[in-house]
Design goal:
This protein is α/β, with parallel strands linked by helices. The chain is built from 14 helices and 33 strands. It folds into five domains: about 170 residues, 3-Layer(aba) Sandwich (Molybdenum Cofactor Biosythetic Enzyme, Chain A), CATH 3.40.980.10; about 160 residues, Molybdenum Cofactor Biosythetic Enzyme, Chain A, CATH 3.40.980.10; about 55 residues, Molybdopterin biosynthesis moea protein, domain 2; about 90 residues, Molybdopterin biosynthesis moea protein, domain 3 (Molybdopterin biosynthesis moeA protein, domain 3), CATH 2.170.190; about 70 residues, MoeA, C-terminal, domain IV (Beta-clip, Beta Barrel), CATH 2.40.340. The structure holds ligand LQZAQKY5, molybdate ion and magnesium ion (MG).
């Protein structure tokens, strides 16, 4: 948050001879070193005239251009000292705590502090605070109150995220970041990180990932889309009893065609205890247990009724029209699943049919591979939640929602770990909170070459992280970062993907690096990445950049079942609409064109569009 300061020296002497004003310039330097990204909106001098002081204060508060105005001078007992009176004329609310804090601390330095009549208050959204006129006293006063300004201004601006940040900082006894924003002139003008190829990076990520894999047991209903951590071995046969495949009559095959006496009825769910004798039949339903003595089922369509009961309601005899074969229309015990058969293999993802099979075997719970807890952090002073009101210069944080839902579409739940400001303390605090909850943290923004791109520095300097991947030869996604953190016994236990802020760049790198990592951590995908299919291009596709480009493709199946593909249009990294409807990525080498009708291999990350 950039605070906007104004400095008003009140002194008739300095007004006549401005070069005598030392307090104004010294105060300005002090403010700038305490708040490096602040803005000094004005530095003025007025004489000790109440109306003149009042006018400057009104001008700069009512225009809404200043968050804080410091006056220096005119606060003592001299007859001409009227700064507090002019201040009281304009303020709408008093802020006595500020002057009290200055007085209390200053009394420890000099008892002359008692002679200050300084006042403080708020007009509209601006804080006005009187400092003494001497350089030393004004700077001492500034240093006393400066820790409160971020928070005070955030409250006045109704900047909820900064207020939360400050509350956390106060509550957690926060240690500021070791990274400084001050030495911009000394920043490197070339990236310090080697440019890696995508395949190289995938290999490194695979090698350096912390060992996260553990097993957990879940209720069947909670295990959909998870990866099996055990073979599912049948402890019972399916079916468990010989069951009829048809609605018809259970018979002895050796009786052949001809009349049968209908001895009993067996419906699904019955447990028949009678035994079929020669010339007898049991009426039977699909799925019902075949009674002892029967060895074939004849479907009702292959029979006729030959005799009914006196009331005409019950079958007494039926004629079997077709020669029954031994075992006909009977599912034998264990014919679907035999006892001890490994019916589902570990490391496979649980689909609805897996769950059905597991349920058939009577399991209540299943062992699956535990997933890392994933957190997503957005970074950027410009970001506002899409649920909040947009301010001038701000944009909606779209990355958070698109990445949370992209992961969800592959069944990974991630936690929203907030929006960090482009300030080292804010990045540090937001990451600290994310790491306290999550094993894998994904951030977006702040990884390129700008002075406010702080992710790599904060990760390295504040968290001792090792950056394994710092730059990639790809478009989009060049500044992609992969880093790991160790715990206090030196064991790697956290991983970070710090992705570029451009909406397409973080989307594509999530597809190419984060999702494969998550699948790999679940043993499902050996970093082979998305399957490739042959696609015929509908038009020429050019890449003007030197970096290989992952062009977003719409892939369609024509009536003959052949696949054709077209690009989603302008591929600039900010244009997230270039992801819309894309189901595949086509890697186009740097400075090259692939001609229409060429057959190319497209990596499919989704099923085809209908
Ligand atoms: N001097 C250089 N500048 C840049 C380079 C470079 O190599 N040298 N690389 C460019 C490339 S490539 C990319 S990609 C971007 C990456 O930038 P950062 O990761 O540092 O991200 P920011 O600067 O914070 O933001 C970039 C862009 O994205 C917008 N953004 C950020 N977060 C969000 C969000 N959550 N939702 C929506 N939009 C977001 C942000 O406003 C910026 O417009 O750097 C190039 N620069
Ligand atoms: O690498 Mo950036 O992601 O092209 O815009
Ligand atoms: Mg940047």
């Amino acid at each position: 948050m950039a605070i906007r300061f104004g400095i008003l020296t009140v002194s008739t002497t300095c007004f006549i001879c401005p070069e005598k004003d030392r307090t104004g310039p010294e105060l300005e330097a002090c403010i700038q070193s305490a708040f490096p990204d602040c803005q000094i909106v004005f530095r003025k001098i007025v004489s000790d005239v109440r109306a003149d002081i009042r006018q400057v204060l009104i001008d700069f508060t009512d225009a809404g251009t200043c968050d804080v105005i410091f006056t220096a001078g005119g606060t003592g007992f001299a007859l001409s000292d009227v700064t507090p009176e002019a201040t009281k004329d304009v303020i709408e609310k008093e802020a006595p705590g500020l002057t009290y804090a200055i007085l209390a601390k200053s009394l420890g330095i000099t008892e002359m502090a008692m002679l200050s009549r300084a006042t403080a208050g708020i007009r509209k959204q601006t804080i006005i605070l009187n400092f003494p006129g001497s350089v030393k006293a004004s700077i001492e006063s500034f240093n006393i109150v400066k820790p409160t300004f971020f928070h005070a201004v955030a409250l006045l601006r109704e900047d909820a995220s900064q207020v939360t940040l400050d509350h956390n900082r106060i509550q957690q006894d926060f240690q500021p970041s070791k990274v400084s924003l001050l030495a911009t002139a000394r920043r490197p003008r070339k990236s310090l990180y080697p440019m890696l190829e995508v395949q190289e990076a995938l290999k490194i990520i695979k090698e350096k990932l912390p060992p996260m894999q553990k097993i957990e047991e879940l209720l069947l209903e909670d295990s959909i889309d998870r990866v099996l951590a055990e073979d599912i071995r049948a402890s019972r046969p399916v079916p468990e009893f010989a069951a009829s495949i048809k609605d018809g009559y259970a018979v002895k095959a050796s009786d052949g065609t001809g009349l049968r006496y209908v001895k009993a009825v067996v419906a699904a769910g019955d447990a028949p205890d009678n035994e079929l004798g020669p010339g007898e039949a049991c009426r039977i339903s699909t799925g019902a247990p075949v009674p002892r003595g029967a060895d074939a089922v004849v479907q009702v369509e292959d029979t006729i009724l030959t005799e009914a009961s006196v009331d005409g309601l019950q079958e007494v005899t039926v004629n079997i029209l077709i020669e029954p074969k031994l075992g006909q229309d009977i599912r034998q015990v264990g014919s679907d699943i035999a006892v001890d058969e490994v019916v589902l293999c570990k490391n496979r993802r649980i689909t609805p049919s897996y769950l059905g099979v597991i349920a058939m075997l009577g399991f209540e719970k299943v062992k699956v591979i535990k997933r890392p807890c994933i957190g997503i952090v957005s970074t950027g002073n410009e970001l506002v939640s899409y649920k909040d009101v947009l301010k001038p210069g701000s944009i909606y944080d779209s990355n958070k929602l698109s990445l949370l839902s992209l992961l969800k579409s592959y069944s990974y739940e991630a936690i929203d770990c907030g929006i960090s400001k482009d300030h080292p303390d804010s990045v540090k605090l937001t990451l600290e909170k994310a790491f306290s909850k999550c094993d894998l943290v994904i951030t977006t923004g702040g990884v390129s070459m700008g002075e406010f791109d702080l992710l790599k520095q904060v990760l390295e300097e504040d968290f001792g992280a090792t950056i394994h991947v710092g730059r990639l030869n790809m478009k989009p996604g060049k500044p992609t970062v992969f880093a790991t953190l160790s715990n206090n016994i030196g064991k790697i236990n956290k991983a970070v993907f710090a992705l570029p802020g451009n909406p397409v760049s973080c989307f594509v790198t999530t597809l190419l690096f984060v999702v494969p990592t998550l699948k790999y951590l679940e043993n499902e995908m050996d970093f082979k990445n998305w399957p490739k299919v042959n696609v015929t291009l509908e038009h020429n596709i050019s890449n003007k950049d030197a970096r290989p480009e992952y062009v977003r493709m719409i892939v369609l199946a024509n009536d003959e079942g052949a696949l054709t593909g077209r690009s989603t249009g302008n591929q600039i990294s900010s244009r997230l609409n270039s992801m819309v409807d894309a189901t595949g990525l086509l890697l186009v080498p740097g400075h090259s064109t692939i001609k229409a009708n060429t057959s190319v291999k497209v990596q499919l990350f989704r099923t085809l569009n209908l």
